[in-house]
């Protein structure tokens, strides 16, 4: 049997660790020996049933050819890298110092816009960084609603211009193993979160330096993915645009996933904030009895305007409108004097966001004079445009730093819905598209298929990706969430979290 | 000669002090003796030329009738007050404890909208407070651009509904000498700034309690007038709506008077703020050489967009648009990502503000989607609507408190253009209408005509209203403005201030 191309696996990976250790110990070849897959190993142990000399010989020959092929592949990839460095410059020494340099990397490809079947796990040549790029060995990839729209071929500017096939994904955290020419702010070994426009769902990711942000030492890669985009958006909506101060009332239409929990967590850091959350029908009942005084849940189809005016006759100070379900005039009128209406474009249920928004807002133009007469503000926030078109890296970096500070101060924490292996991308996307997630949905390129268990089994819904990360996560979760011993494992306290944070959807 | 109705004059008044002292010393009557006017006094001293018994008798008779008339008037007014208290309740004890209770008070009346001649100094019966009102003995009345529009019969809601004659003015500071029924937050003797919708230019002003705000002990009445409206507007534009933070660029179209200087002073409190001030043509030359690095002056008719983009290629973070001269699209496009456009409606040069604004903005509706795509905000601020229609007293009080705190911390200071007597209302209004003022224009009801000197004489342009206030003012002015002895008097250092602050127009 021919060996599969395989590159050095991080030592903290749960799967294949022992196999790797055996190979690492042998150390006979100047180039590393390829590992047999576990099936071949199994076959070897069954040797007592077929100890003929011929079979022994065949196995030896197979191994030799296997090793030879691996050696050639290593030679090829290293010579490709040398060529790349001669032509383009840069520094790939950290990549080259790896035990095995992968010739091909695993990723998630979109072959055609549209259905589920058009997205598939694939292998592509190792990407290499050009001028201004960095090469990241990825540890954690985020799944967001935008990915579902990308898959469906709706929204947005770059998807419209980019033609499949391409690699999916726009959020990834990992360590920098290569630098293109002229990279100035980052160095080899830096732990970063990267927000490339696409191609994030891959074992190795090339990204422009300007879309990468260093993460604090104590922050795990999964936490970085959970906190970056949602954290920057939440912070911008509440503080930069909303200018939230003590004693204000905020109206938030149902925002699932990491964004919903982060907006709530951040709003809670301001004393006496009251958050009105309009929840989906399916959440009926549960929320209303919540013991959380900061958050008031109202079912979507009820007369929430009257309900809010009962306690806030002058209306709310801040409306966060995800562009998808609110009636602009109704919510605008619900604003109190000095109130702010922030449009942030989160998601849409039917058709493209831009199509929806254009038809929805086409007739919704506002006279600035009306704002002047009523002492109101309308603000718009669109992180993708800010990052990829307006390229306001300074703002994004400063805001990310503030988010990290809030995290370090224990004011906010990363909340995960599930951490899945690459091959579960379709389940992950569907989960997000159905707004079923509570907290961040993550694809972990370091988990192999064998380690990943059915997400529908609640006890095994999520897997820790490293002991250290598990500890980090446990440390960050407030103590009251896992007082008992039953919450020692990530999937355990994530299960608990699901209970606790469900109301926040 | 009959005495003129005259009430107790504050002991710190510059004028008539000696005359008053004489009368106070006599103290023969249970009701106070009316003073002769200075002409009568003069006539008395010429007595050596007409010492006939008849003349002596005539003078005695005149005095007796004078005193009798005054006594009757005091009886009348006190009985009117008693009646008022029986019918309406309240507490007028501080008013009644005054040496003289005025039957009539001096004020500035508008008889018809339009020309200068339709506004006149007048006397009206002492106003008395109804339920929820306070009665203020005024010490300082502010003149703002809105007053000129009121006089001209343009703008705004209440002027359109109110028919002349009425008493002009919407800003007054003084002490509370009477309370209507059900006044809860204020008490007799409180020093307040009041923002009645009108009738502020009077020796005694009745105002709803909700429009009155207590001022710090150390703040003079003139300072309160200079800091309140302009301070609240400036603070709202820069911090509440603009959310100004370090390192931002602000575009400010020429804003004369107290508002312009306060916006600049407050913006300077934020590190590394750069203010682009579009100045009137007549200011040509002077400003460009300013040594002030925080403020960059650009002449109105030049290509300021290019000039700003030279140093801020991404544009400005905040545009403050006084609704009067900017081109909305030009300035909106000059906003950087995350930039804010704040419309605050300061003044208009031709026709009414509302007329101008409606024609100007009628075709300038903005799609919120555009804001979303461009990461921009549009905000409107209108203090009058906020105060009189939306009645958001809490916001106004909180913002005023922040302004007072900035003043107490020495971050901002009151700047005066001139402090004039009541009878100079027309000069004051014209000065403001012509945008000629640098700092606040004030009418002081405690200065008599004799004390007030021609404002066009620079050395006597302004007068201190009390020694204490003069000291207060001097103390507040930064030391470098009056290092020499020549600035000991208010008009002296105000002259200096004019030089120093001229560039800020």
From TrEMBL, chains A, B:
Residues in Enoyl reductase (ER) domain copies: 114-443
Keywords for this protein: Oxidoreductase
GO molecular function terms noted in the UniProt entry: oxidoreductase activity
Keyword flag Oxidoreductase: yes
Superkingdom of origin: Eukaryota
Any Pfam family the entry gives: ADH_zinc_N_2
UniProt keyword Cell cycle, yes or no: no
Stretch list, region Disordered: 449-471
Residue ranges, compositional bias (Basic and acidic residues): 449-459
SUPFAM superfamilies according to UniProt: GroES-like, NAD(P)-binding Rossmann-fold domains
TM helices/strands, residue ranges: none
Protein name: Enoyl reductase (ER) domain-containing protein
């Amino acid at each position: 049997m021919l060996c599969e191309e395989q590159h050095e696996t991080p030592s903290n990976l749960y799967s294949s660790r022992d196999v790797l250790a055996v190979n690492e110990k042998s150390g006979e070849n100047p180039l590393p020996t390829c590992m047999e897959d576990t099936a071949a190993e199994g076959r070897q142990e069954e040797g007592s049933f077929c100890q003929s000399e011929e079979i022994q010989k065949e196995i030896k020959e197979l191994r030799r050819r296997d090793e030879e092929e691996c050696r050639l592949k290593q030679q090829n990839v290293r010579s490709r890298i040398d060529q790349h460095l001669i032509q383009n410059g840069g520094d790939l020494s950290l990549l080259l110092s790896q035990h095995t340099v992968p010739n091909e990397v695993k990723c998630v490809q979109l072959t055609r816009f549209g259905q589920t079947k058009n997205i598939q796990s694939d292998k592509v040549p190792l990407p290499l960084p050009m001028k201004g790029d960095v090469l990241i060995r990825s540890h954690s990839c985020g799944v967001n609603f935008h990915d579902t729209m990308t898959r469906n071929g709706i929204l947005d500017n770059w998807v419209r211009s980019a033609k499949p096939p391409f690699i999916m994904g726009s959020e990834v955290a990992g360590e920098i193993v290569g630098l293109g020419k002229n990279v100035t702010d980052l160095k080899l070994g830096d732990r970063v979160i990267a927000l490339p426009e696409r191609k994030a769902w891959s074992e190795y990711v090339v990204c422009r330096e300007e879309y990468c942000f260093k993460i604090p030492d104590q922050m795990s890669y999964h936490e970085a993915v959970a906190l970056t985009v949602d954290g920057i958006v939440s912070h911008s909506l509440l503080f930069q645009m909303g200018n939230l101060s003590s004693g204000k009332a905020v109206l938030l239409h149902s925002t699932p996933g990491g964004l919903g929990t982060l907006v709530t967590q951040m709003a809670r850091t301001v004393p006496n904030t009251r958050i009105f959350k309009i929840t989906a029908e399916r959440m009926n009942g549960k929320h209303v009895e919540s013991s959380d005084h900061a958050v008031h849940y109202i079912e979507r189809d009820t007369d929430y305007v009257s309900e809010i005016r009962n306690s806030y006759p002058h209306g709310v100070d801040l409306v966060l409108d995800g562009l998808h379900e609110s009636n602009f005039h109704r919510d605008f009128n619900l604003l109190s004097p000095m109130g702010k209406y922030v449009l942030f474009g989160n998601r849409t249920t039917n058709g493209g966001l831009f199509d929806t928004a254009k038809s929805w807002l086409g007739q919704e133009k506002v006279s600035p004079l009306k704002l002047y007469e009523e002492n109101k503000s309308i603000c718009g926030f669109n992180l993708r445009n800010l990052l990829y078109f307006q390229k306001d890296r300074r703002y994004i970096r400063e805001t990310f730093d503030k988010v990290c500070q809030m995290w370090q101060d224990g004011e906010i924490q990363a909340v995960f819905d599930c951490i899945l292996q690459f091959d579960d991308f379709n389940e992950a996307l569907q989960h997000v598209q159905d707004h079923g997630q509570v907290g961040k949905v993550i694809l972990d390129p370091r988990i192999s298929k064998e380690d990943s268990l059915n997400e529908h089994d609640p006890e095994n819904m999520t897997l820790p990706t490293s002991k250290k990360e598990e500890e980090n996560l446990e440390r960050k979760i407030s103590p009251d969430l896992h007082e008992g011993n039953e919450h020692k494992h990530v999937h355990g306290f994530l299960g608990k979290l699901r209970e606790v944070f469900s109301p926040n959807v």
